[in-house]
Amino acid sequence: MSAAAPVPSLVELVPGAQLLPTALVRALESGAAVRDVATGTVLLRQRAVVVDLVVLVTGRIATLVDFTGTGDLVVETTEQRGRIFGWSGLCEPGRASATVRTDADSQVITLPLDPVRHGPPQWTAALCEVVAAGLADRTLALQQRWTGNAIARDDA
Amino acid sequence: MRDTPALRRWFAGLTLLDQLHDADRDLLAEHAGWVHLGCRDRLYGADEPGTALWFLVDGEIILGDRTGGVADGVVRRSVTTPGYPVGWDGLVWPRRHRWDAVAGSPARLLRVPRGVIDERGGRDAAFAARFYRFLLWLAGGQLRGQHTRLITARYDDQTDAVAALVASRADELRVTSALHRIPAYLRSRPTIADAFRALEAIRDGEDALEAQLAREALDILAGARRELRVYLGLQRVYETVASAPPEVGPAELRARSCRALIDLFAHTEHRIVGLDRLPPATGNIVLSNHLDSHPSNRLPNGFSLILDTHFVSSMILYRTYGTAPVRVVRDSHWHEAGHARYYARLGYVMVPSAEAGAPTAAERSARYARFLDQASAVLGSGLDLVICPEGRTGPTTGSPRQLRTGAFALAARLDPAPLIVPIALAHFDERLSRAVLGAVVAEPFRLSDVIADPTDRDAVAAFVAEDLTPRYRGWVREAAALR
Question: What is the DSSP letter of B463?
Fold first, then answer.
């Protein structure tokens, strides 16, 4: 990983981030780092403690799940700018539920969670709402992709 | 009727809400209102504003796209966990629902208006933090569950998928965890119900990891649960009739059977078109094409309830008129004790089975006269008579194969001439828990409307073979296309 360009505005980057209190946005952006990362870089490791949220700016990110000891299986890939990873850092026990890895040379922003953990409760409420919205959108995208696959298989 | 103390106790007992404080749960209980849904009723739709959070009390809610259909676990997900919150996706930005929510079976929920949550969150930031962290946990659980289902969907068999799910977390489970026994329970039909009971107990228990795995397993097993419900429903229908006290007469048993069947079909997906075409009163000859029974409908005594005609009797005729019809049914074969025990009680018009061998002309004549007497008496008493003119079952594709003319000869002999009501059925030959059952009620007619001389046997045979049969196949295709 290498440090790169100035931090893009979270409000412009992340859907729903306009809901976040201005002070929270400032706190998040002040600790944020923009990083250019090479293909195959592990950004979050399943079961490891999560200390940062990761936001995709450009490139592609894969989500992998270790299942029955057969190794990490790719369950999701996205090129969606503004997608957030590391939600489990905001919930107990604060460990990643999946491995997150770059699937192409990418640019990401890391947002330390400490300011939120030590900030006022309305920051937690607002950030949890925005991150939860992103998870709902990821779930929906997975369903839509599955439907698309099913149609493609029928046509094959 | 609201019973706030009972609702408080119910919310307090939900381990799913452990992250919330007692006062938070009391708030939900104090503002929760009952919502009752029938099978296929819609709770909310995609793109609609999120106005509330619902808590499932019992039944099944299917979350997915608006195309309908049964839950496949991936595109359409089934929620059956009592206390599970539904509709959270409409409470997070942009505060519109992502999915349709439809009842997969009769369901009861408790609805807490969004305004109550917003109002408390505005006054109490700590509550807002707990509540939205809870929603994030739900959203994360749903995404994680989706990942699991994407993997387990690669398994052909739900039991294998659950076995793999348990194995995937075996190193984190207690060695004495009951979850280890679940795959064995699932592999034997008599213990499937035990598997569900065990999973539900684990889901409601205090071990968070076990509870999460049990919820995911129950999600994966939504189809198996639906099959179990259907199977238990089939058993209830049979026992309602076969084990009824001897003093209960055939008319009352037919009505009880119809009510048990309505309960059974409430757990299936079905579409009926043309109910408005039914005659205003009973006393008609009702025709039905006859479809094979799926092997999964076979009861432990070997008897298969053929459900197409039962659907006509209960869901179409009994629900419309409040009167159970009489059916024409073949005699039981010598080895069909279950068949005999069931049909002997219902007062149906019985006709000889093929097993009886080729009758002499005199025997045939005597049997036919008996059939005419009994069938005429049924119609004369104002009851509907349900007949399958094919005389045998077949697959939906190409149904009906060949219509025999007995029902029409009966109609030709009666005065006044009864209305003939064709009903086309589709997909009853598929596994009930996965099929979308279709029924089309076609326009009723009198034989004299379509044939100049209804007693002309050649003209009747030509009408049935060349006119009615092709049209009937078209109605069956229409029923098969209902979604």
Answer: I
- pTM given for the model: 0.62
Give the chain B residue whose CA is nearest to the CA of A138: B143
Same domain, B146 and B169: no
Residue of A75, A129, A130 with shortest CB distance to B150? A75
Q: Are residues B213 and B78 in the same domain?
A: no
Q: How many domains does chain B have?
A: 3
Nearby residues of B193 by Cβ (< 8 Å), 6 or more positions away? B228, B232
Asked if A29 and A53 touch (Cβ cutoff 8 Å), the reply is no
Q: Does a structural domain hold residue B229?
A: no
Round to whole Å and give the CA distance between A136 and A133.
Answer: 5
Q: Which amino acid is at B438?
A: G
Range(s) of the domain holding residue A31: 2-155
Band the pLDDT of A156: cuts 50, 70, 90.
very low
A137 and chain B in contact, CB less than 8 A: yes
Q: How far is B143 from chain A (nearest CA, A)?
A: 5
Choose the final residue of a domain: B106, B135, B152: B152
Is position B194 within any domain? yes
Q: What is the Cα–Cα distance from B125 to B128, expressed in whole angstroms?
A: 5
Average pLDDT over residues B164-178: 83
* B99, closest residue in chain A (CA to CA): A140
Judge whether B176 lies within some domain: yes
CA distance B247 to B345: 11
Q: What is the CATH number of the domain that holds A134?
A: 2.60.120.10
The two three-digit tokens of residue B462, written as one number: 């030509």
- DSSP symbol at B304: B
What is the ipTM score, two decimals?
0.93
Contact A146 B98 (CB under 8 A): no
CB contact set of A151 (below 8 Å; sequence gap of 6+): none
Tokens of B174: 């207690």
Measured CA to CA in angstroms, residue B483 lies from A150, B232, B427, B465 at distances of 18, 25, 11, 29
Q: What does chain B come to in residues?
A: 483
Dig out the tokens for B66 from the structure: 């608006």
CB B92 within 8 A of CB B135: yes
Domain that holds residue B187: 158-220
Residue listed under structure tokens 């219902």:
B346
Contact residues for B141 (Cβ-Cβ < 8 A; gap 6+) = B212, B215
